[in-house]
Amino acid sequence: MYDRIKGFRDFYPAEMQSRRQVMDTVEGAAKNYGFREIGTPALEAVEMYADKSGDEIVEELYAFEDQGGREVALTPELTPTVARMFVAKQQELSKPVKWVSTRPFWRYEEPQQGRFREFYQTNVDIFGSSDPTADAEVLAVAADALTDLGLTAEDFDFRVSHRDILGGLLESFDADVDTRAAIRAVDKRAKVEDDEYARLLEEAGLTHAQAMEFDGLLDTPEDSLDELVAFAGTDRVEAAVENLQNVLAAANDFGVREYCTLSLTTARGLDYYTGVVFECFDSTGEVSRSVFGGGRYDDLIEGFGGQPTPAVGFAPGYATLSLLCQRAGVWPAEELSTDYYVLQVGDTRDVAARVARDLRARGHVVESDVSGRSFGAQLDYADSINAETVVIVGEQDLANGEVTVKDMDSGDQTTAPVDAFPGDHDRPTFEDFAE
Amino acid sequence: MYDRIKGFRDFYPAEMQSRRQVMDTVEGAAKNYGFREIGTPALEAVEMYADKSGDEIVEELYAFEDQGGREVALTPELTPTVARMFVAKQQELSKPVKWVSTRPFWRYEEPQQGRFREFYQTNVDIFGSSDPTADAEVLAVAADALTDLGLTAEDFDFRVSHRDILGGLLESFDADVDTRAAIRAVDKRAKVEDDEYARLLEEAGLTHAQAMEFDGLLDTPEDSLDELVAFAGTDRVEAAVENLQNVLAAANDFGVREYCTLSLTTARGLDYYTGVVFECFDSTGEVSRSVFGGGRYDDLIEGFGGQPTPAVGFAPGYATLSLLCQRAGVWPAEELSTDYYVLQVGDTRDVAARVARDLRARGHVVESDVSGRSFGAQLDYADSINAETVVIVGEQDLANGEVTVKDMDSGDQTTAPVDAFPGDHDRPTFEDFAE
Predict the structure, then answer these.
(1) Which of A95, A202, A334, B264 would disulfide-bridge A128, Cβ 3.0–4.6 Å?
(2) Which residues of A touch B131 (CB under 8 A)?
(3) ipTM of the complex
(4) Chain B closest CA to A261's CA: distance in Å?
(5) What's the half-sphere exposure (Cβ side, CA atoms, 13 Å) at A194?
């Protein structure tokens, strides 16, 4: 007996069917906006993450030396990979490039509710547009994905922020601030004690008083953003505020403004973000952590050796998304569905196989006996897989040129001519043959 | 600039769209027979492969010690994982268990045509039936998958063999034979020189004369299998021949007998196979290696600590399958498809966004400008993504309450009332509005 590795999961059919439905819905929302599926490798060079993702991710890498002596890592996130792929074909790709993919990632973290060492994400990215419309399209895909799952504005909230407002405010203080460290402190604000948060800001270079003032600025409401421009007095903050307002206006055109709330205390943990960033939260607070997030990363492509290229994206993870869907009561029922079970009684395999084949040719899920089991055992099995209709192919019925069609919901059954089954019927049921 | 790791691949959208279509077709064939999707981890304990898969696979493992000191490996194949999963829930699972999944696997092999270090397979397995019907259902799913891809009996051939016939013949010789080693030699028969093949059989315990005699028996034609029974004179060979004949009879009922040829020189490389095994080959021989294979592995579940449970399955890999499809001219065209491009002229984003949203709500793939580009640049982009219809939302047209609908194939265009677009139309085209 072997054990599954800690933090890794096996998905059995009923749960997998629900997950697949949710993943297809999210991916489908992106595909309807013209995002195209890509396929990406599970291993990348370790140095890519060491250079670009920040220390936190590198500490959690599943990294090792392969048989050829390369330092490789199981991909902990997709953004560096898509940046690498974009740079490799930058000249020939028609811009904007809009990519989507769903796959597992791996981080050596302590497993807890909604967090696993192997976790699945759908990544959605646009390369080649700095226009606020691109940021808004990302918000729109995210909102469509959630509403397509059955969630409503009562259920979730996109907390929208802007890295350049945070950075611009920080540089307006009379201090030598490590902006990345300060922004990481903001990202930790809700997760650590107040003292610890203040200490992190001070470590980043602010005095205690400056840290308190900076933190106070983060509570500025949306209709007072001009106060931030006035406080900083820099073009950088002015441009960032205007950009944020333009993104929200575009989100309004896209019909998703209602899901967005200004939240400057939202910072995102990864170093490479530049402009608008956002995180999705459960409106009820019952799912206490961020469900997923995204944002703009305009410098990463150049950092990967490409021509400067703006980029924006987001990546819902299914561990937290399933918590939100379950809280809201919209997680799909975890039960199998089956269109037909073709039941064999006696030596009728040839006819049963023909009936099953004809039903499959019409696009249905059709099971039949592969174990030589009794009538009762087959009927129990058909019930266990939630077969809607059972077609009984018995020796006696066949002698009369008939099969029996049984509706599993009502238990009603009737006979049908075997030569006309399924015949002209696309999806033959009990009703089609009952008198 | 970072490089992709050798033997790993990036799939860009056009190629990925074709791959996805092929993978969905293969998975769809299995799902129509009631195989249910499962999700499986990328890492497993190394010992699982060391115990069960044979030395060849263990030498090629991407194995390492994780941060918690576990010896783990990137999964090189799925069978041990599904065996582990089956054993973990053996009591509660309704039998037969029929599972399918599509995902990457990893082996440190030398990359060549049709072989990569990261490769994708669809695994299809039945647990809990020893009936020949189960073997035949696996052959039927494999055949349906290939014919659904557009392949015909002219294109491929399932070479069907039986491990127990091979093993039974070997044990009937007056020699101390290492059956596994001898069967591995048979598996290598077509890949090594005759001398080397003879040497491998001798190493397994046969004399040179016995090795030659054994090899001659492998050419026995289907209508003379009784001669093998007579040669061996054992119940084991008699039962194995009868089982093979029953599987082929069941394949006939399933309508897939025409794809199957007896081929006792087919052995399969993995140690855990027990009964019927098969390999799919390109009938033209242009793809010179086995496209994929499968077979029965009745002892594995017990070897994993479960109750004795028969099992049978197969696993098409997409690297070799794509070679076969390309050779046969049925690999899907590698080009993007897009239903609509909504083109903005002037400040019309709000209306364009509403039109795009309504088209998406009807299930279509709809792109729109996210870069503030010119009319010409947008039209070029719409062409590059093969948009079927372009809806032009211009300030002047809007002043008249109209949008322009352009068929990209013919270049024809006409106007449509903006309030009735898409209106009652599920998939509005130029023809719907042309006078």
Answers:
(1) A95
(2) 370-372
(3) 0.94
(4) 20
(5) 4
